[in-house]
Structure of HAD family hydrolase:
Amino acid sequence: MYKCCIFDLDGTLVDSIKAINHTINLTLSKYNLGPISEENCKIFVGDGYKKLVERSLIHCKDYDLKHYKDALLTYTEYFKIYCMYKVKAYDGIKDLLNYLKNNNIKITVLSNKPHKRTIENVEVIFGSEYFDYISGERNNIKRKPNPEGAIIITRKLNISPKDCLYIGDTDTDMKTGIGANMDTIGVTWGFRSREELESYNPKYVVDHPKEIIDIIKKSCVEINNL
């Protein structure tokens, strides 16, 4: 039976693309660039805000990244203001989280969003002290897809990776979960396609949070039948 679920945040627990897209477009407008569409933004996210800014500038033909250093500062300042802009939990997520808590399964977050903004998103949408552990991007932890952050969570909670589910919506997440030797679930309601997720061969790909409940229930039945 699984003892812990490690969730990505953006595109997995919360639909935050409008906040990210709004912030990057405000940033680009400072340099008379952009805007970029939400669909392009979904492709540019996943590897942290620095990569988002870099990819967005290149998309807007700043190939030499002459605005990059200033744009990082600008994005950070705007994101402090707009990180909750139209952010909402995906349908079925709160039911899934309540099921996990009611069955004594730890719930955690591992995000490439800056740590303070990660905590803000989680606490505004789900409440404070609801999750057992929250980790955003910090200087002392390697960013996903490096599995270090996921492994740190297992150590903090004294849980083996084989007893964890890693759940995310991008190629970055598939690499992270698989690299941490965790059963990995790709979710199709986020920012990337089913085809992209399946190309990394996660253990599961699901279309709705209730399917994760079914996976956990099935694992319990299988253990009981051993």
